[in-house]
Amino acid sequence: MDTRLAANFHAPPASLQAIPYIMLIVFVPAYEAVFVPAVRRLTGVGTGITPLQRIGVGLFAVTFSMVAAALVEARRRHSSVSGDGRTLSIFWIAPQFLVFGLSEMFTAVGLIEFFYKQSLSGMQAFLTSMTYCSYSFGFYLSSVLVSLVNRVTSRNGGNGWLSNNDLDKDRLDLFYWLLAALSILNFFNFLFWSRWYSNSVETVQVAGVGGDGGSEQEDEKGSA
C-alpha cells in the first residue's frame, strides 16, 4: 500500500493504531456533552442509555470494523495479484480503526460504568481490573484462533489462510470475514446474558432483596 503523505514523507503503518485512541480522546467528551443530554430527554435514564445498552452498541459496532477490513483487504489483494498497477493508499484502512475506536468508546467505558454501578460495595476495583485481564486473555485466544484457522484451512494439502506470511498469497480478507461472523455471534451471546441479568435483577427487586448495585444497597442501609 502507498504510505506517502507528501513527496518526502511516509506514514509509518503502525502509526494508524493510534487512531482508536485519538477517537477516544475526541468522542468521549463529545459523548458526555452532546449525546447523553440529548438521549436523556428521550429515555429518562441519567446516563442516556444504560451501561448494558452501551456495551451492546460497542459490540455491535465492532462488526462493521471487521467488515470494513475485509472489504479493503479484498480490494488490495485483487489490485496486487491482478497487477493492474493501482496501489491503494494506506488511509483506506483508516475507517476500520475509526469504527474500532468508536466501539471501544462504548464497550470499554460501558464495562467500567457497569461494574461501578452494579457490583457489590468493595468489588468495583477488582471487577474493573478483570476487564483488562479479559483483554490479555483475548490476545492469547487470538493466537490460538490463528493457529486453529491455519490448521483447518490447510487440510487436504492446501495452504492455510495465514500460513505464508505473504499478504498476496494468504487470505486475510477471509479471516476478517470470519472475525466479523464471530463478532455477530458474540453480540447475540451478549444479548442473551444481558437479558438474563436484567430479568434476574427485576426478580430480586420485586422480591425486595436488594437494589441495582452495591452503592445503592449501602444507601438503603444508611437510610434505614
UniProtKB/TrEMBL annotation:
It is found in: Membrane. InterPro entries: MFS_trans_sf, POT_fam. Belongs to the major facilitator superfamily. Proton-dependent oligopeptide transporter (POT/PTR) (TC 2.A.17) family. It comes from Aegilops tauschii subsp. strangulata. Its main location: membrane. It is a multi-pass membrane protein. It comes from the Eukaryota. This is Peptide transporter PTR2. Pfam families: PTR2. GO terms for cellular component: membrane. GO terms for molecular function: transmembrane transporter activity. Keywords: Membrane, Transmembrane, Transmembrane helix. The chain crosses the membrane at residues 18-39, 51-72, 92-116, 137-154, 174-193.
